């Protein structure tokens, strides 16, 4: 069961909140009949408040804070105005105005969210009326900064399927026909001793010994050695992923690393191994100053190095900030195209997609590739997973896409905790960056260009992003598998996939047509890319009035069903007519109807 009806307030204490106002307010709590509370969710405080809606006038109502969400409901008009915001979505909470502020609704709170919206609330200025609610929101939105647990560890949701079983590494490698005579499975990392940010099961060249792997690890940033991500069953070319080599300013070489890359090349007889460095050339050179670098021609003579010019996490963070400025709360209509261009967001999407296309094309033509950026957990994950999505139709199914995310992003150590900042009040942390959002945007661009190639719909992508922030499920918590293991995430939290797979009908693309051998090459040009309006501008009520794609799908399917029903009725009436008729020629029309092919 996904949720239970909301329970009337039970008078449990407010944790360690010392505010007398908070406990006094808590006694006034009312039953909240129109929102379903989750098992494990508890009411904390109610408060009369004014929501300063950016699309309408100020709205009087009541805000309800639980240990999971902020829920607002208006009380002053017949038209319902509600907000249902998981506290994990909150990036920061600011006080607005002071005790002496003049002007209507100038005193209150501003809540900046991670999902492209901000919320402003006004309160009465008398008696520090916002202190209690500010402290409670701050405490429950950032539990890790207050020595508390994330909601995923408090949730008691139950589902039939255990979502943690969606991805079984050995099962996925067997699907790819691994291990084989060219590639072997190693358990050298079973206790995270080789690399603490890699999974426990790795696939490496058959001829590489575990001792070789240890020596290579010493020459790769964070010990993230080149390991297999995907194996082409026909031509045996592979996608491997890793981090940058530790070349440094002096141009160090490592014979073991050079030989190891040669083993990857030799596995399927690739003439020249292509190394895709996701970074701009100038950044890769600059990384030498901090001990990193790239594979030089002199050391790696059987390899070709290609720089993909994808910028770093800081550039992406600033780009998304600029995008938010032009879409929320109001869309800048008069200079829309130039404003959008100035964010560079679609330009970054283009470069990521373009890089993934190059990787997929090279592997499809029979050559093996190595993909890396600096540490191999941001741009590398974007490139490998998108290339795999283009090459392998399994990952374009609802189930396969879950496996792809679990494998390339979660198990291989994309730093979700650092990039999203789950439960952490340090909103200005320089590690924050929308790398995973950017990947999902690239997937959405592909679904737009190939509307029949994906079994899942846009709703799945939005749900994934919503729960990237919500902290309701354990799926995206922590930076790597070793951290999830030490916090027993699998035992103590529910997986997002248990929720998704409890009602898959919501996420199915009705126009999906399976094509097992088709490689997808999206067009990565600015003319073919578009802003994902139904995600980035979804909080604007004018956008919501536009009919979503899935709604149009459903209408077309309903129309198809009507036509098929009509066709059946015609066939039935015609066969009845044929049975009752004694004229032999009346069979002719029926033959036409029987062979009629519906275009659906």
Automatic annotation (TrEMBL):
Residues 163-536 form the Myotubularin phosphatase domain. Residues 343-389 form the Tyrosine specific protein phosphatases domain. The keyword Transferase does not apply. Substrate binds at residues 312-313, 373-379. SMART domains: GRAM, PTPc_motif. It is a peripheral membrane protein. Its EC number is 3.1.3.95. Keywords: Cell membrane, Cell projection, Cytoplasm, Endosome, Hydrolase, Lipid metabolism, Membrane, Protein phosphatase. GO terms for biological process: mitochondrion distribution; muscle cell cellular homeostasis; negative regulation of autophagosome assembly; phosphatidylinositol dephosphorylation. PANTHER family: MYOTUBULARIN, MYOTUBULARIN-RELATED. This is Myotubularin. It comes from Carassius auratus. The lineage of its organism: Eukaryota, Metazoa, Chordata, Craniata, Vertebrata.
């Amino acid at each position: 069961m996904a949720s239970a009806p909301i329970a009337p307030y039970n008078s449990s204490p407010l944790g360690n909140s010392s505010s007398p106002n908070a406990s006094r307010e808590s006694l006034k709590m009312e039953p909240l009949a129109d929102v379903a509370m989750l098992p494990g969710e508890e009411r904390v405080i109610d408060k009369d408040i004014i929501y300063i809606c950016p699309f309408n006038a100020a709205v009087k109502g009541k805000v309800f804070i639980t240990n999971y969400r902020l829920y607002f409901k208006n009380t002053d008009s017949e038209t319902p105005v509600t907000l249902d915001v998981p506290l994990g979505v909150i990036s920061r909470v600011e006080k607005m105005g002071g005790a002496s502020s003049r002007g209507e609704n100038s005193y209150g709170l501003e809540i900046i969210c991670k999902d492209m919206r901000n919320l402003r609330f006004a309160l009465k200025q008398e008696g520090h009326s916002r202190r209690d609610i500010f402290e409670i929101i701050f405490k429950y939105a950032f539990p890790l900064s207050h020595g508390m647990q994330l909601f995923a560890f408090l949730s008691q949701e139950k589902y039939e399927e255990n979502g943690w079983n969606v991805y079984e590494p050995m099962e996925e490698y067997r699907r790819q026909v691994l291990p084989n005579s060219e590639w072997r499975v190693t358990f050298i990392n079973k206790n995270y001793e080789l690399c603490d940010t890699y999974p426990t099961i790795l696939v490496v060249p058959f001829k590489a010994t575990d001792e070789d792997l240890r020596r290579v690890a010493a020459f790769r940033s964070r010990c993230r050695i080149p390991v297999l991500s995907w194996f082409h069953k026909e031509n045996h070319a592979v996608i491997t992923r890793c981090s940058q080599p530790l070349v440094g300013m002096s141009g160090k070489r490592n014979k073991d690393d050079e030989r190891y890359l040669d083993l990857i090349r030799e596995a399927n007889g690739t003439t020249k191994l292509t190394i895709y460095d996701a970074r701009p050339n100038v950044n890769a050179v600059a990384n030498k100053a901090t001990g990193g670098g790239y594979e030089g021609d002199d050391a790696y003579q059987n390899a070709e190095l290609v720089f993909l010019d994808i910028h770093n996490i800081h550039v992406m963070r600033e780009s998304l900030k600029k995008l938010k400025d032009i879409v929320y709360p109001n869309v800048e209509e008069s200079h829309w195209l130039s404003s959008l261009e100035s964010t560079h967001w679609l330009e970054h999407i283009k470069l990521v997609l373009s890089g993934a296309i190059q990787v997929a094309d090279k592997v499809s033509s029979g050559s093996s590739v190595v993909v890396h950026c600096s540490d191999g957990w941001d741009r590398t994950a974007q490139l490998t997973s998108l290339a795999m999505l283009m090459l392998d139709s399994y990952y374009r199914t609802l189930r396969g896409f879950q496996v792809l995310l679990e494998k390339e992003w979660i198990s291989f150590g994309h730093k979700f905790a650092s990039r999203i900042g789950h439960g952490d009040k340090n909103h200005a942390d320089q590690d924050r960056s929308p790398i995973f959002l950017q990947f999902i945007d690239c997937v959405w661009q592909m679904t737009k260009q190939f509307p029949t190639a994906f079994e899942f719909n846009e709703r799945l992508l939005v749900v994934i992003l919503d729960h990237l922030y919500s902290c309701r499920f354990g799926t995206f918590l922590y930076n790597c598998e070793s951290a999830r293991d030490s916090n027993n995430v699998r035992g103590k939290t529910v997986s997002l996939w248990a929720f998704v797979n409890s009602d898959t009908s919501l996420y199915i693309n009705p126009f999906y047509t399976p094509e097992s051998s088709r490689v997808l090459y999206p067009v990565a040009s600015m003319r073919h890319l578009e802003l994902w309006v139904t995600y980035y501008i979804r909080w604007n009520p004018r956008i919501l009035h536009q009919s979503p794609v899935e709604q149009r799908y459903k209408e077309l399917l309903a129309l198809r069903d009507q036509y098929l029903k009509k066709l059946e009725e015609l066939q039935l009436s015609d066969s009845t007519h044929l049975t009752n008729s004694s004229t032999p020629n009346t069979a002719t029309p029926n033959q036409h109807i029987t062979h009629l092919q519906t275009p659906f």
